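Exercise 7b. Backbone tokens:
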């Protein structure tokens, strides 16, 4: 197998395709620096999948690699694909179920990192049918440069005026990291446009997830109640409830105080002590409700919190 074929074979596995891409005449197949026949959108999708599975590399460094340098990373990513389908292998039914569940949980915003796990062309399709509508760029994003799994507030800079918009986050280890704008794209779900069958798909998918993860965190938005391991805790419409919803979007990933201040309190000047107090209230409420396996980790990374599922 030539390097070119190997690259596309790995890309197909990672992106959940039958094969990749169209056959080309031999004369076109031997450029050492040709990153193949993927479209820009497919390149982004592939990059997001590889970075998500391998960690420890930024998008900028990935882009600078040639085909031969990328192959070892892709091989490593393939070994980390979960059995029965990797991040590139969500089916359309999975995606619709996820959208329905997000609407139900009151978190109807879809990020570019999530979309990277969808089948190719799905975003375009959902945009054209109105299920998804492009909304503002993300206010926060997970760092993909250090392997620390943390979410930081995005600083947008346009300097000098009229120049291209740039985005940065502060990384705990590396310092200032530039984030490509395509990673910050977001969409809002229009529940009225979701096909009627999505809810059925959701219950099926929940059953599957439940057996796979041995317990799933569920939010009932009508009663502001959280359910876990067969127990429920009524948090009411409080900051505690919304904090838990926010942290549950990416379990295990550390979210900075500044992101929590802006996403949960809608006020970036929220005091650190206010956040600490809300976290300790939340811990107490969960404990009182007998929910013992949800851990709110506030000590591993300074000024960051993560929700740890068992
Ligand atoms: Zn980082």
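Sequence design result:
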């Amino acid at each position: 197998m030539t390097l070119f074929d190997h690259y596309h074979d790995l890309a197909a596995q990672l992106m959940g395709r039958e094969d990749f891409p169209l056959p080309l005449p031999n004369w076109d197949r031997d450029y050492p620096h040709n990153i193949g026949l993927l479209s820009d959108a497919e390149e982004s999708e592939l990059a997001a999948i590889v970075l998500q599975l391998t960690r420890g590399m930024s998008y900028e460094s990935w882009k600078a690699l040639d085909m031969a340098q990328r192959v070892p990373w892709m091989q490593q990513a393939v070994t980390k694909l979960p059995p029965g389908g990797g991040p590139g292998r969500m089916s359309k039914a999975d995606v619709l179920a996820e959208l329905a569940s997000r609407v139900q949980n009151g978190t109807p915003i879809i990020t570019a990192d999530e979309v990277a796990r969808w089948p190719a062309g799905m975003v375009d399709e959902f945009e054209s049918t109105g299920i998804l509508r492009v909304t503002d760029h993300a206010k926060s994003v997970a760092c993909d440069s250090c392997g620390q799994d943390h979410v930081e507030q995005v600083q947008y800079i346009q300097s000098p005026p009229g120049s291209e918009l740039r985005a940065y986050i502060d990384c705990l280890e590396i310092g200032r990291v530039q984030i490509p704008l395509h990673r910050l794209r977001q969409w809002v779900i229009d529940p009225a446009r979701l096909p009627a069958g999505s809810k059925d798909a959701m219950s099926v998918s929940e059953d599957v997830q439940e057996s796979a993860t041995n317990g799933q965190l569920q939010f009932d938005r009508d009663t502001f109640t959280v359910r876990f391991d067969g127990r429920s805790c009524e948090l009411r419409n409080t900051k505690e409830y919304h904090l838990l919803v926010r942290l549950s979007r990416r379990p295990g990933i550390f979210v900075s105080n500044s992101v929590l201040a802006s996403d949960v309190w809608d006020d970036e000047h929220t005091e650190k002590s206010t956040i600490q107090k809300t976290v300790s209230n939340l811990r107490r409420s969960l404990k009182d409700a007998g929910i013992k396996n949800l851990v709110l980790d506030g000590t591993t990374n300074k000024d960051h919190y993560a929700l740890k599922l068992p």
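Instructor comment: The pocket of zinc ion is lined by residues 143, 145-146, 148, 150, 171-174 (CB under 6 Å). The two ends are 42 Å apart (CA to CA).
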